[in-house]
Design brief:
There is one protein chain. This protein has about 260 residues and is α/β, with parallel strands linked by helices. The chain is built from 10 helices and 9 strands. Strands 1-2-3-4-6-9 form a 6-stranded mixed β-sheet, sandwiched between helices. It starts with 6 loop residues before the first strand and ends in a 10-residue tail after the last helix.
Length: about 260
């Protein structure tokens, strides 16, 4: 099954395989996140699906949002009205079936957030995990400020968020950000094997155990994205944000002035 937003859904036994393709960067926008959410909803509703494999085509897993040309959080909205991009993002964390993600390359910004939706991340050696928001003069979004420290711990999350450094696959595995690191030519097979291992368990027990261990994560992300958006709203009006977006597009360090 496929849609017009670059998302296809297949099946291997009890595993739903959700693949997105937005070459060359696999940028995340509202249509893509909503389409992935629709695929997750269908998987939740299908009794034959017991686990979900999330993956993307191409060299890059997801380069985040295209802040220069199609910023999904740029519009001013009436007070109290939630941003639809973050509504769709928060909804992904509410999926009931376990999710395994394959990370073949860079997972940057909102792409890192999308990777964090998954319960497990299987990475190729070429994978990179990047929270580069401060290099854009920006605040983290997609719930990253709430979820990242649950995965890697507060200090490592703070290090990633305040430096924007690229965390390579091996270090990500040491930190718990990647659960397996396997050669690129085995990436999809190993990730599918993990999803099938999960799907072999009693499905009601798997979902119940996962729900207990994830706790209030979905509600936390929904609340945190509101805060993230408020911080992003005023930062987008700064000269540093304009400089950060230019610098990233020009592949150079930003020259920030704190204004």
């Amino acid at each position: 099954m496929s849609d017009d937003n670059g998302v296809t859904v297949g099946r291997d036994g009890h595993v739903a395989i959700v693949t997105f393709a937005r070459p060359p960067h696999n940028f995340a926008d509202l249509a893509l996140i909503q389409a992935i959410g629709t695929a997750f909803d269908a998987s939740d509703a299908d009794r034959e699906v017991r686990a979900i494999l999330l993956r993307s085509d191409g060299r890059i897993f997801c380069a985040g949002a295209d802040l220069a040309n199609a910023n999904p959080v740029a519009e001013d909205r009436p007070a109290g009205e939630r941003n639809p991009f973050y509504v769709a993002a928060a909804k992904l964390f509410a999926v009931r079936k376990p999710v395994v993600a394959t990370i073949q390359g860079a997972a940057v910004g909102a792409g890192l957030g999308l990777a964090l939706v998954a319960d497990f991340r299987v990475a190729a050696p070429e994978a990179r995990f990047v929270a580069n928001f401060v290099q854009l003069g920006f605040h983290p979004g997609f719930g990253i400020s709430a979820v990242l420290d649950r995965v890697v711990g507060r200090q490592r999350a703070l290090l990633m968020a305040l430096t924007g450094r690229r965390v390579r696959a091996e270090q990500a595995a040491e930190w718990g950000l990647a659960d397996l690191v396997v050669p690129a030519d085995r990436l999809r097979a190993e990730a599918l094997a993990l999803a099938q291992e999960i799907a072999a368990g009693a499905p009601l027990a798997v979902q119940s155990t996962r729900a207990t261990m994830r706790g209030d994560l979905a509600a936390l992300v929904a609340a945190q994205t509101d805060h993230e958006l408020a911080e992003q709203a005023w930062l987008q009006k700064t000269a540093d944000f304009a400089e950060g977006v230019r610098a990233v597009n020009e592949r150079r360090p930003g020259v920030f002035r704190g204004e």
